[in-house]
Design goal:
Layout (H helix, E strand, L loop, with lengths): L4 H37 L2 H21 L4 H17 L2
Helix pairs in contact: 1-2, 2-3
């Protein structure tokens, strides 16, 4: 348990941030899963739109520090390569 007022406040804000970060990461996972399913099905047009949505969400998460910028860049690159392999 926290000993000082500032530590108590820090615990509250950490809990709030953890909840928000988890929801953003869950959304990213859902968007990626939808994209991978579309690529697997060979639906290139829909997959392109899904990749655009996922990329946007990933950039926003990287900008706020929820996801590391290098990880976001690497993931975008690899998913774009998968899209290019679809006929």
């Amino acid at each position: 348990m926290a000993n000082t007022k500032s530590a108590e406040k820090r615990m509250r804000s950490s809990a709030r941030k953890q909840l928000h970060n988890r929801s953003v990461k869950t959304r990213l996972g859902t968007l990626e899963k939808n994209y991978v399913a579309l690529v697997g099905a060979g639906k290139k047009d829909d997959a392109t739109k899904a990749l655009q949505a996922f990329t946007s969400a990933l950039d926003k998460a990287a900008k706020t520090g929820i996801v590391h910028k290098s990880r976001a860049s690497r993931k975008k690159s690899r998913l774009a390569l998968r899209l290019n392999k679809v006929k």
